[in-house]
Amino acid sequence: MTTLNDELASVAAALSRSTVQIQDRRFGGGSGVIWQADGVIITNAHVIRSDRPTVKLADNRVLDAVCTNRDRLQDLAVLKVDATDLPAAPIGDSDTLRVGQMVFAVGNPLGITNALTTGIIHTVSSKNQTGKNQTAKHQTGTWIQADIRLRSGNSGGALADTQGKVIGINTAIAGGLGLAIPSNIVERFLRRGTVKPYLGVTLQPVAIGRRYRRRLGLLILAVQADSLAESAGLLTGDVLTGVAGRGFTDISDLAEVLWQFSPGDLLQLNLIRAGKSAIAQIQIPDKSGAVAA
């Protein structure tokens, strides 16, 4: 038992060294995780209200930071500080999470520095394009839900497994459960950088289907020249119905899906053309513009 306690204490100490306190001069602050030793720090977008917050490290150094990327939809932000050899956290694979798995949360709740709480994974959920939450044993979804005690100030801090690997960024509390963004989504966010896929279409929402089974379609009114849409063969008059077999429920769904894709990913669009179902395959290039849809 003593050995186990020592191991958990060692994990907690390492996580604390990789956790920072983010201070915004006018808007409060929260927590962040040292993701890379060269000064890259991950936090929530809602924690960062200005582009130049300060960051307090575990060794009490206070550094000026610059927000280099922020995505309010995914609630993620990247900070950069002028420092090297920082104690970066080891990053785990959130796809391998299991319900009932023990996890740690580290942050700065209510002004308490590097507070640690423990809990278990409750659910890994995926908000699909029908707007419904689905659960899968090994699926990386929109949220990791954990039965763990979080407070104001935990936002942006690490959710980690018993080996000390960060598997999520704590973001919110809902129904008494802590919600965290999976680490694999954070990794895709970092790889994507500030570039977001630009499909290059003008859309209009339309109702499709039979009278009692109406669903949302996105009618293409125009296709921009030299765009992803044109290269995929999309035409004016096509009606987009979903992504990878999952239907749209809101006109913003397509933009949300595009924002989650990284360069090199393959996007499968479902559509109706001349009354028949079809599929368009789109490969997200390295550079494709700056605005989705």
Describe this structure in words.
This protein is mostly beta strands and 293 residues long. The chain folds into three domains: 80 residues, Thrombin, subunit H, CATH 2.40.10; 99 residues, Beta Barrel (Thrombin, subunit H), CATH 2.40.10.10; 83 residues, Pdz3 Domain (Roll). It is 13% helix and 42% strand. It is built from four helices and 19 strands. It has a six-stranded antiparallel β-barrel with strand order 1-2-3-6-5-4. A six-stranded antiparallel barrel has the order 7-8-10-13-12-11. Strands 14, 15, 16, 17, 18 and 19 form a six-stranded antiparallel beta sheet that branches. Strand 16 and strand 17 form a beta hairpin. It is elongated and about 70 Å long.
